[in-house]
Design goal:
Among the domains are: 1-128 and 450-519, 3-Layer(aba) Sandwich (Rossmann fold); 175-338, no CATH class. By secondary structure, it is an alpha/beta fold. It starts with a strand and ends with a helix. A hairpin with a 2-residue loop joins strand 6 and strand 7. The chain is 57% helix and 19% strand. The mean pLDDT is 87. The protein has a 6-stranded antiparallel β-sheet, covered by helices on one side. It has a 6-stranded mixed β-sheet with strand order 8-12-13-3-14-15. The chain is elongated.
Length: 550
Amino acid sequence: MLTALSIKNYALIEDIQIHLQKGFTIITGETGAGKSIMLGALGLLLGKRADYSAIRNSKNKCIIEGVFDISNYRLESFFEKEDLDYEKNTIIRREILSSGKSRAFINDTPVTLPVLVKLGDFLIDIHGQHQTLSLGENQYQFQVIDTLAKNQEVIAEYQKGLRTYKKLQHKLTELKEAQAQAIKEHDYNVFLLNELDAAKLKADMLPDLEERYEELSNVETLTEHLGGAIDIIQKEEIGALSQLKDARNNLNKIAGFSANYAGLKDRVDSVIIELDDIAQELETSLDRVEANPEELEQVNARLQVVYNLQKKHSAESVAELLAIQNELSAKVALTENAEADMEKVNKEIVHQKEVLEAVSKKLHDNRAIVIPGFIKEVEKIVTELGMPNARLKIDLKLQKEFLANGQDQLLWYLSANKGGDFTELKKAASGGELSRIMLAVKSILATQSKLPTIIFDEIDTGVSGDIAQKMGGILQNMGHSMQVIAITHLPQIAGKGSKHFKIYKEDVADETKTNIKELQPEERIQELAMMLGGNTLSESAMAHAKSLLN
């Protein structure tokens, strides 16, 4: 629960601190005194976006800090998940600079606004005047029933399954679209693939083919020059080998005279060996050179096939052709295997649909169990609040479609008057009736929810007199199980609080400031008397105020 709140440099607030306690706390003040400012500051503390124009003095930063006693609410796992220090008295701080920067801290650890919002959802429910209208919205109606039915884990299971179901449907759609496109191109792709397959492509084939083509196309030139090279090397007496051997013989005769001559002789030996090896390879090459018109024609034909395929597919290499071949193969296989793939996904969809239907049925059954008791409780409370003939009806029907929270259609109807027809709640109820029904709903939820604090901003709109007195009693009873804070204009409700704060404006040194103070017993009597009779503190108003407090 919220035990302390500090607001500095925000709107009309210069610096205020208040300390709160368990039970039912009242906040009153004249219209425009700054109650909405205080709620706005609390909203910032819970992660709402900052309005930098609300900073009172642009030279200083705005600081809003709240201390929360969370010792009884089992939030250790949240702090562990978010890598935060867990403290029984957790401090949340929000700092807003006029430069436009905003910072948030939980126990002095910087956090993002989404983390602040998550923690805030565990701590405070701020029920503003506009939120009463949400009672007619289907999403909120589901939230109420599912809270009572303790459906949170089942809904999480359902929504996870629904995401899987939608992914499978999307996958099936993609397969169908891909198959439709592939079918259009299938015959042409098969033709292109067959052409590439027939070419029996290999990554390194083109250089080998081009080299062999050059050999077969130049047989006479090769024979002439290879033979000439062999003659120059091996011709008797005047050939290079013969002359080198003569040189070796000469060096052999003087090799013993010095290491230098011996080395020169060895080098000539090496040249003779190398040249002899070259001569043998030249002879082998000459032996291979043979006119072969048939092979030349075959090699040329293969080259033309490769060149034509490169031109056709705008490929610069055989490697690119092989990549195109693989791509075409995949496309053809996709078309031919698409039926099997779609059948597999269809089976998965059928299975996931059965899973979702089972979870949806569980949600439906859980809701159906709690609805009758909930209707009975709401009717009982609104009867006490001056709606004795009000009847609530909740229709729950299973649909074929998978919706956000299951397969249920949920509609709330109200008959406000005896013998009246049931009409959708958002159309049937007036503002005052909606306020009373909402209070009934909140009081029922308070018995189920583990939420530490709820703040009502003028939940009493549209009611007065004895109804307001009973509404105050309900809020007071809610305060037995949680911290309840009510901003009210009605003395009948204000008199029920165990603690009473007053928000007021005052002019100090040509500046208007909003302040708040805790009222002592005598001050409470005066405040209630003024709420009853205006600024005139008549004896009857004072007496009435005392009776309200008693």
